[in-house]
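Sequence and structure are no longer studied apart. As an example, we show below a sequence and the tokens encoding its fold:
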Amino acid sequence: MTPFISGIELLSNQKSFRLDINTIKGLWFLLHFKKFEILNTVIYHKQYSEFRQSKSTKYPTRRLTKKFANTADLLDYLSIINYRRSRNFYIYEIEFTNGWKIKESCHIAFTFYTNSVEERNTLINHLINSVAYDPIAIDSLEPNYSYYFNASGSLMDANSGFIMPDEFWGKDRYEKWKSDAIKEYYNEEVSDTVDIPFNIGGSVFPTNDRDIRVPF
């Protein structure tokens, strides 16, 4: 049995986290935020190729310009489009007026950005409780390490001590991680010819430092 939420990772800014979810089948998960007022969205869409069309027919990827008052309005719109099966959508980012944000990662995860450690912890337990998992000891988790949920809801270390960088790392820390990873996992000398881009999932919106009360 594959759990709906298969894994969790805390990000290094202490206010954000990632949940491993099949976002195509699990778009309903955003109903937890259905009353949240939307400040801005970055959503891309592309028309499906129809069965009778030529294989050479290519459709461009465009940004959705339609505005939405809240997440419920957005989900209603996407439900209609999905029912018609005319376009494929990718939710790069939803920003709310309370300072929170949600990003989709390659249809396999949602990343949630809050304003404080307390908000992060409350949101984590709210979301995992919605799929019948028990509360977890969040403070015992190490940032940038992936943890998998067992069917019982307990956690296990997913990547055996291998740390992964995130968008909040400084360049010096990232370069050191890159150098160490090359030495350890590829058994090669560090070379300037090795090029791993730094901008990991950076936000297209400016930082929002407004304080809010926890909604749950």
